[in-house]
Specification:
Number of domains: 1
Strand content: 5-15%
CATH architecture: 3-Layer(aba) Sandwich
Oligomer: single chain
Shape: globular
Helix content: 25-40%
Radius of gyration: 16 Å
Largest sheet: 5 strands, mixed
Order of helices and strands: HHEEEHHEHE
Length: 171
């Protein structure tokens, strides 16, 4: 299965690079990322996702869903796509948004075999008043079993430290 998902990513590679390059070349500040959102949601629609725009009171936030119709895990991918004033995409949000959409789309190609549901959340303005907190406050993560974000770095790593936690106490 891992190989097949990887093959789907490889098949989308040129399109994903094109989307990332476009977002990089057209930097938009937080809550103004209309071009980035258009590119990402067009790609997700083309890959069978249903899109809800303007979630949590933010015009450039979105929720894309691909449901296998079968029981299984609900996996979410988070997309960032805002730029920094005077810098552009110095933090790689053009890649973060594209990688999240690409991961969701590639998983959608095999989820009919495993069951479950995929959410891709567009999270604007991560450099300022980010949408992730509002998405959580509105309960949109409540049904999600695992939420992931991919971040570019100078090397590949299998996993890293979590930036968030949900403490559980057992007795």
């Amino acid at each position: 299965m891992k190989k097949r998902i990887s093959d789907h990513i490889d098949a989308m590679k040129d399109e994903l690079i094109s989307i990332s390059d476009f977002i990089y070349a057209h930097p938009e500040l937080g809550n103004e990322e209309f071009l980035a959102v258009e590119k990402l949601t067009e790609f997700l629609k083309k890959n069978g996702f249903e899109i809800e725009m303007g979630i949590v009171g933010k015009a450039t936030a979105f929720h894309a869903v691909y449901d296998s119709g079968l029981p299984g895990a609900h996996v979410a991918f988070l997309c960032e796509y805002d730029a920094l004033p005077g810098v552009g995409h110095g933090c790689g949000h053009n890649m973060i948004g594209t990688m999240g959409a690409g991961a969701g789309a590639s998983l959608s190609k095999v989820i009919s075999e495993t069951g479950g549901k995929i959410s891709v959340f567009g999270t604007p303005a991560e450099e300022t008043d980010g949408a992730k907190v509002e998405i959580a406050k509105h309960g949109l993560f409540d049904s999600v079993d695992a939420a992931m974000i991919l971040h570019p770095a100078q090397h590949s790593v299998k996993s890293g430290k979590s930036l968030a936690m949900d403490a559980l106490q057992f007795s």
